[in-house]
Amino acid sequence: MAFPVHRIARLGRYWSDPDSFLQLVSKLEKFIAKLLSLAMIVVIIVSTIDLGIFLVQNLFTFTPFFLKTALFEVFGMFLSVLIALEILENITGYLRRNVIQVELVVATSLIAIARKLIILDVNKISTGELFGLGFAVLALAVSYWIVRSAPPRNSHH
To answer: Which residues contact 8 (CB under 8 A, 6 or more apart)?
Structure first.
């Protein structure tokens, strides 16, 4: 079965006409964002089910020192679901307004670093890694403050 010549001509038009090419790229971006949204929904559902199973197994079966040993794991799982929800909000916000929400990206990054710090085993981390995490928290906090305190941009061109 031969490839239709008119399809090749259409691809050539997309390549030679900047507006047509940008329109094609925009459609592709939207399609990929929709796929990512669906994938993130699956991740959120599976993570929530996993968290529920973990809680049922550990809260309703008495194990000594559960809170001492597993509490940080539970917090990490909760924050993982929250991070996934924030990422989904980023993707759907992009689909709605066709812009990346910088404040939400920085806030999500702060949550991810907080999760890392909460579940961190200080006996298994080097001083350099600890300083690196501290610097990342400081940089993200400053970034968040800058983004929050910046005057709103006028979206009209």
So the answer is: none
